[in-house]
Design goal:
With 104 residues, this protein is of the alpha+beta class. It has a single domain, classed as Diaminopimelate Epimerase, Chain A, domain 1 (Roll), CATH 3.10.310.40. It contains 4 helices and 4 strands, in the order αββαββαα. It has a 4-stranded antiparallel sheet with strand order 1-2-4-3, sandwiched between helices.
């Protein structure tokens, strides 16, 4: 979670992380004025197995929101910041399940 970050800062940070990590699925979040901002990014090597829109919605549904975007980057918002820590805690297992289920 990036304290006080706006949507532009989240997008810029996502671009830098995707460039640096090369192969990753990433979720960044921020809470401002009781609203949750989310951005998900998936590197191009993984978009065949995992879409950023699916990932961002996995988190957004748990924080009272929804979102969408491209296969490699998607944004969402929510209204339940108190649910954010638990929602983020489930991301790694969700990603592993998605990537693993297509690997066989």
């Amino acid at each position: 979670t990036l304290e006080g970050a706006d949507a532009t800062a989240l997008r810029e940070t996502m671009d830098k992380l995707k460039d640096k990590l090369k192969s990753a699925a990433i979720v960044l979040s921020a809470v401002n004025d009781g609203k949750v901002s989310l951005i998900a990014g998936v590197t191009s090597d993984l978009t065949g197995k995992l879409k950023a829109g699916e990932l961002v919605n996995f988190v957004a549904q748990q924080v009272g929101g929804k979102g969408g975007g491209r296969p490699d980057m998607a944004q969402a918002g929510g209204t339940q910041p108190e649910a954010l820590p638990q929602a983020l805690a489930g991301v790694a297992d969700w990603v592993r399940a998605k990537v693993g289920q297509d690997a066989g």
